[in-house]
Structure formats: structure tokens, C-alpha cells
User: Fold this.
Amino acid sequence: MEMQTSEELNMFYILGAILAASFGTALTRFLPFFVLRKANKSLLLSYLQETMPLLIMTLLVFFSLKDTAWSETYGLYEIGGIACAVVCFVFSKNSVLSIFAGIIFY
Assistant:
């Protein structure tokens, strides 16, 4: 019986890691649809569906301002980008457009 070289073992290890990560990612993406299939009339899920996008965007804004050097530019670029995204969203109601407008303005 021949011994496998470390290169062959590394290849199998990398392939196994890729397959495991792919399976784990697919499982976390598809499992909620199968588990919560009959719970779509739940008031809690309806409430979360309505409030989570705003909560996530708020967290992203605060997280992006966390490491801002307020003494150098006074945060003008960051606040300008956020203001541009808000104004664009208020007038167009298009999330993707407002995100890209804020990034480009920043």
C-alpha cells in the first residue's frame, strides 16, 4: 500500500473544506424556508419583516461612523454620503439607487 504525499492530502483537505463550507452555507440559506413554511402567518414574523431592514440600515450607518476621524475632516464626507443616500431614498424609494448614490457621493 502506497503512502499518500502531503500534497495529495492537502488537496483532499482543501476539497473537503470547500464542500463542507458550501454545504453549511446552503443549509443556513435554505433551512429557514423549510422550517418556517407554515409559520408565515405569524405576527412576530410579519413584524420582523417590516422592521428588520430599517434596523439593519441603522446598524450599518452607526458601524460605518464608528471609526471616523472627526478631528481631521469633521466627518463631512461620511455625513454627506449618508445625507445623499437618505435624500435619494426619500425621493426615489429605490434602495439600490440610494446606496450607490451615497457611495459615489462619499
